[in-house]
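S.,

As promised, the zinc ion run. Input:
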Amino acid sequence: MLCETCYWCATYLDKTKVVDKCPLCSATVMSSFPIMPDESFVFSYDAKRGIELDFGRRK
Ligand SMILES: [Zn+2]
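Predicted complex:
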């Protein structure tokens, strides 16, 4: 889950706990992307470069 307003993000492994509102800014514009249990990703945000997501296999 990624808030497109303040870039708060979280990974949910339990779908019943997914929120549809950002806990930080209350925006409802949330992006979500599926991720497999054996995959991981690194989220980084840079004001100049924007959002960077590095997906990879969990070791
Ligand atoms: Zn937000």
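Residues 1 and 32 are 4 Å apart (CA to CA). The pocket of zinc ion is lined by residues 3, 5-6, 8, 22, 24-25, 27 (CB under 6 Å).

- D.
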